């Protein structure tokens, strides 16, 4: 077996990994580099973007753009595999964007929808065979819903590809149990390391939810700026609203995403059941939200939590409560978007937020902290090595985890041969 990380050895995002065995190429993720990252030459990968693709397949860990954003670069005949709910969420998102751009004719999002029409889906714990490979997807907790690790086996080598994951989410407790069952006798772990330079421990989603509930008790008109695809956060806020006797509002797109999760996962967990109303304010012809009298009366009587995104229509909706002492704005996204020094700096969002200087930052990372990484490595105990990916600091792995297993740091495009070790 050979491992090539085509992109992602020294950056967060843009991930493309190839596992090669007996003429078959198993690709994992085909991501966009993060916004602001200096764009290297376009990806040219034999067996993926060009050349003989008859023995290639592409597995997607989750729907974040840094893992799937370049999906159109994959040659058409390559089969694509993805989690069932993740695919539904991804298609819903692209459908939403395609409709927004409809008058401009065929757009990129429509092309993506076409490409995704025949994607094969998998579910956690169910092993798939493809070529000489056996692949077992393990569902993990991440800020994208229905995200996966993969246990991959071929030619006597077993590796664990972590994808993006964390230990402080609502569903994270399942991970050590899954690893105990499915990730035995692992030779290599290819591991994400997004937060390798962040504090050792990260606030849990449940602690964040408790803080939101405190806020909702104190403030009546709550607007939370967050990512629509962060569905655990959306459900967390939904429950926080009803437990503090506020009503819950979002736009119809966000509601559709929540309904997808509810219909696929509500049978397994009450957390994903929608039992109380999700109110969706209608829009006028210009796309602006308005609150009809009945809804407005309810909002004023009960107070509310409304999920918003950074666009003019949402900010206009927020402004209807400007000047009211009960209005509260929360920023529930990564701080990097507001940091002028960050490559992903978003000046428009910063400007919109500057109208609300008292906004509160309420967020926790979608990625594991150092403590969780160490725990995972100690449990899995890879026999031959840890290979960092999805990190700006692969060099830091050795100091932290070199005592658990040898750390193998690769360069983008370098091929590592497992058999020779
Ligand atoms: Zn990522
Ligand atoms: Zn991710």
What is the CATH first-level class name of the largest domain? Alpha Beta
Unreliable parts: none
Distance between the termini: 11 Å
The largest sheet has its strands arranged as 6-5-4-3-2-1-19
Query: What is the overall shape?
Result: globular
Chemical compounds bound to the protein: zinc ion
Number of strands: 19
Largest sheet: 7 strands, mixed
Helix segment tally: 12
What's the domain count? 2
CATH homologous superfamily grouping of the largest domain: Ribonuclease Z/Hydroxyacylglutathione hydrolase-like
Describe this structure in words.
- The protein is an alpha/beta fold and 421 residues long.
- It has 2 domains: 249 residues, Metallo-beta-lactamase, Chain A, CATH 3.60.15.10; 157 residues, Metallo-hydrolase/oxidoreductase (Rossmann fold, 3-Layer(aba) Sandwich).
- The chain has 12 helices and 19 strands.
- Strands 6-5-4-3-2-1-19 form a 7-stranded mixed beta sheet. The chain has a 6-stranded mixed beta sheet with strand order 7-8-9-10-11-18, with helices on one face. Strands 14-13-15-12-16-17 form a 6-stranded parallel beta sheet, with helices on both faces.
- Helix 7 links the parallel strand 13 and strand 14.
- Helix 2 runs antiparallel to helix 3, helix 2 runs antiparallel to helix 7 and helix 5 packs across helix 6.
- It starts with a strand and ends with a strand.
- The model has no long low-confidence stretch (mean pLDDT 95).
- It binds zinc ion (2 copies).
- One zinc ion binds next to loops.
């Amino acid at each position: 077996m050979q491992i090539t990380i085509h992109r992602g050895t020294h950056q967060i995002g843009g991930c493309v990994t190839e596992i090669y065995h007996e003429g078959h190429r198993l690709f994992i993720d085909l991501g966009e580099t993060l916004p602001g990252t200096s764009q290297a030459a376009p990806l040219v990968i034999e067996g993926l973007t060009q050349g003989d693709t008859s023995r290639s397949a592409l597995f997607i860990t989750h729907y974040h753009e840094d893992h799937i954003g370049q999906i159109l670069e994959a040659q058409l005949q390559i089969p694509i595999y993805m989690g069932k709910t993740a695919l539904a969420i991804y298609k819903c998102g692209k459908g939403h964007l395609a409709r927004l751009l409809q008058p401009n004719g065929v757009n990129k999002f429509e092309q993506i929808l076409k490409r995704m029409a025949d994607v094969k889906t998998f579910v956690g714990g169910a092993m798939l065979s493809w070529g000489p490979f056996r692949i077992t997807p393990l569902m993990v907790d991440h800020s994208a819903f229905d995200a996966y690790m993969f246990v991959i086996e071929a030619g006597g080598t077993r590796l664990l590809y972590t994808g993006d994951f964390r230990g402080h989410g609502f569903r994270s407790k399942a991970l050590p149990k899954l690893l105990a069952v499915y990730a035995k006798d692992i030779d290599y772990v290819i591991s994400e390391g997004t937060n390798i330079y962040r504090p050792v421990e990260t606030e849990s989603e449940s602690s964040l939810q408790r803080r939101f509930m405190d806020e909702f008790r104190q403030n009546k008109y709550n607007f939370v700026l967050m990512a629509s695809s962060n569905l655990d956060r959306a459900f967390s806020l939904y429950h926080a609203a009803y437990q503090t006797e506020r009503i819950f509002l979002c736009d119809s797109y966000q509601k559709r995403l929540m309904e997808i999760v509810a219909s696929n996962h509500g049978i397994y967990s009450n957390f994903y059941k929608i039992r109380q109303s999700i109110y969706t304010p209608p829009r006028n012809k210009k796309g602006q939200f308005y609150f009809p009298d009945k809804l407005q009366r309810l909002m004023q009587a009960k107070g509310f939590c409304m999920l918003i995104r950074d666009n003019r229509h949402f900010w206009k909706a927020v402004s209807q409560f400007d000047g009211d002492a009960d209005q509260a704005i929360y920023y529930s996204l990564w701080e990097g978007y507001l940091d002028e020094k960050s490559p992903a700096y978003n000046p428009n969002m910063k400007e919109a937020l500057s109208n609300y200087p008292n906004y509160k930052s309420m967020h926790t990372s979608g990625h594991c902290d150092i403590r969780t990484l160490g725990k995972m490595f100690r449990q899995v105990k890879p026999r031959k090595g840890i290979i960092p990916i999805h990190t700006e600091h692969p060099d830091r792995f050795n100091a932290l985890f070199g005592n658990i297993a040898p750390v193998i740091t690769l360069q983008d495009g370098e091929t590592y041969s497992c058999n020779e070790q």
